[in-house]
Specification:
TIM Barrel
């Protein structure tokens, strides 16, 4: 640490100083310590950020990674009615859509031609779904594009697929791996506290089953990401306990590639629009977002090296700040992003690689393109233009607002005659 930072420590709260010095010594930070860091102000607040940035530098250096990918949210029809979700539509609603497998494959091929190495596939849980739907989607994609990485199907979807297939989670994951799934998104985590989940998303996958899917996947050699949705009705302790739980899972399995804090987007979320819960917040403040990323970096030191921010939720300039508060990954280009957009995010559906590289260089870091498992594919000493950078008319990709109005993709309710 520099002498300037050392001098700041002299003016810090003694307890905060001990916690941060322990972090810099690679000691594990407790839940109680994490809550203490969340309550910092003034010099202490800035020290949390400085320490997180120093730990980031030690773990991953000064490179900032990103992946060229495309999100394919193939249906918004869902049997669940989570209070935070503005994306899903009940099967009775007119705005329900369902992309046929050939359209999913077409989108994957288009992305691959533009340089994407990954397709991220997630969707709602449609009623009367065929048990082999997810497998068939993967097989058809791999048949056309064998070298594309399929990052798909959250623990909620894996559980649903297993249920629809009348098989075990382990057997279904085995079938998915054989069909072509390479990694799983660790979404549907929200906050891993059952009482809170019962409040904001009754009927959602339980904490027990979320952990079961994740641990089983890891033991089968299927890596996953990990996430946390914050800024709604959870407490600071809920957040810290969630991060600590992920840390314990990582110690056991080593299968998490990254951690992604996801700020609650309130605008169209039912539980916020209708004020369903007392004290519900409209997402986290700027300071809160900074602290959440920094504390995650500090608590996950020695466990999960990569901390990704969400430019879709935070915007480009806030994302630059987060790279100085512990984050080291810019996420993906996305091309199509429906879930945050439907909730009211205004930061767009596509961020071109050259725009990511510009944002990274502006803060003095080194941009690199990675694959899903964080293998560096290209380091950009000199600027080059990729196929995706050359696209001038992004309307070709469509938007969520347009998608729900396309008649040929309207969801056909099998219960209607």
């Amino acid at each position: 640490m520099t002498s300037n930072i050392d001098s700041l420590f002299k003016n810090a709260d003694p307890i905060v100083s001990i916690i941060l010095n322990n972090a810099l010594s690679d000691k594990e930070i407790s839940v109680e310590d994490g809550v203490t860091l969340y309550n910092t102000t003034g010099i202490d607040f800035h020290l949390v950020g400085l320490v997180a940035d120093e730990i980031r530098r030690r773990r991953v250096g000064d490179i900032v990674s990103y992946v060229v990918n495309r999100n394919i949210n193939f249906t918004n029809v869902c049997i669940k009615q989570c209070g935070f979700c503005a994306f899903s539509r009940d099967f009775r609603e007119e705005e329900g859509y369902f992309l046929p497998t050939e359209e999913i494959v077409r989108r994957a091929k288009e992305a691959h031609q533009l340089g994407a190495t990954e397709v991220c596939i997630q969707a709602g849980l449609p009623p009367d779904m065929e048990g082999d739907l997810y497998e068939n989607i993967c097989r058809e994609i791999k048949k056309e594009i064998p070298d594309i990485h399929i990052h798909g199907f959250s623990p909620e979807e894996i559980l649903y697929g297993a249920t629809r297939s009348e098989t075990s989670i382990e057997e279904f994951l085995k079938r998915m791996k054989e069909a072509g799934v390479d990694t799983l998104p660790g979404t549907s985590a929200e906050i891993l506290d059952q009482k809170l989940r019962d409040k904001i998303s009754p009927g959602r996958i339980s904490v027990k089953n979320w952990e079961k899917v994740i641990k089983t996947a890891h033991k089968m050699g299927i890596n996953t990401t990990s996430t946390m949705m914050f800024g709604h009705v959870e407490t600071l302790e809920d957040r810290v306990k969630h991060i600590a739980k992920l840390r314990e899972i990582q110690k056991e399995t080593g299968g998490f590639t990254e951690f992604v804090p996801l700020n609650f987007i309130p605008d169209e979320a039912p539980m916020y629009k209708h004020q369903l819960h007392e004290g519900i917040r409209d997402g986290a403040s700027g300071n809160d977002v900074l602290l959440t990323h920094a504390i995650a970096r500090i608590m996950l030191n020695n466990s999960i090296n990569n901390l990704q921010m969400s430019w879709v939720k935070e915007g480009q300039k806030m994302s630059q700040l987060l790279l100085m508060w512990g984050a080291n990954d810019f996420g993906g280009t996305l091309i199509n992003e429906s879930i945050s957009t439907s909730a009211g995010s205004e930061h767009g559906q596509l961020l071109r690689p050259k725009e990511i590289r510009r944002l990274v260089k502006e803060i003095g870091r080194i941009p690199v393109e990675r694959d899903t498992n964080y293998k560096i594919l290209r380091k950009f000493d000199n600027e080059i233009e990729s196929e995706l950078d050359k696209v001038t008319d992004t309307s070709r990709f469509g938007s969520y607002v347009e998608l729900i109005k396309i008649n040929k993709f309207n969801y056909k309710n099998p219960r209607r005659k």
